[in-house]
Design goal:
Elements: H1 14-36, H2 40-43, H3 53-72, E1 76-78, H4 89-92, H5 94-114, E2 120-125, E3 134-139, H6 140-164, H7 177-183
Helix pairs in contact: 1-5, 1-6, 3-5, 3-6
């Protein structure tokens, strides 16, 4: 049996907000630790046809922005609707990407403190290339959980790309909490 604590999104428990806050801060910290190893030249380097580290950063930041856009707008989260042209600077400037990442983490952290996390939203996604997008109900808490997990996945991708460029980064930085739990790792 898992030792995980179940958090009920219908609860007004301060602990629930603290878990989201800590998770966002931890994700931010992971990106900062990883990017500290990576020089500007490696940030934009394409290796063996894979996306660049900068492209992964832009993509990750845009998912955080999608949640923000939905809250400020019509309540529809659309991860497909990303402005790759205006946000292209995030692919080529590590410093600008870090600033934007920090801004988005702070904005989402603010929502965790001030918004009703179980508020209903809608998730829009284009399921295939030849049909219109489908919209399904979701919750703010679910989408924040998703972008945290998505971001963690991209820390792993970035670490892989760094290793392909002979940059040695501690691989445990990007390991998912469930994997750490499986391995028997406990934070102290």
């Amino acid at each position: 049996m898992s030792s995980r604590l179940a958090i009920n999104s219908n609860s007004d428990d301060d602990h629930y907000q603290a878990v989201f806050q800590a998770s966002l801060v931890e994700l931010q910290s992971k990106f900062h630790k990883i990017l500290a190893y990576i020089g500007d030249d490696h940030y934009v380097q394409q290796v063996d046809g894979f996306s660049t580290i900068g492209q992964h950063m832009r993509h990750t930041i845009q998912f955080l922005q999608a949640v923000d856009k939905a809250i400020k707008g019509n309540g529809v989260v659309d991860y497909d609707d990303r402005d790759r042209v205006s946000d292209a600077i995030l692919e080529t400037s590590k410093s600008k990407a870090i600033v934007r990442l920090d801004e988005m983490i702070n904005i989402l952290s603010g929502y965790v403190k001030t918004q009703v996390l179980d508020q209903t939203m809608f998730l829009s996604e284009k399921m295939t290339s030849d049909i219109l997008a489908v919209q399904v109900p979701t919750f703010l808490s679910r989408e924040i959980m998703y972008v945290i997990g998505h971001g963690l996945h991209h820390t792993s991708d970035i670490t892989f790309l760094a290793h392909m460029q002979n940059i040695n980064i501690d691989r445990d930085i990007c390991v998912a909490p469930s994997t750490l739990e499986y391995r028997g790792f406990k934070k102290t």
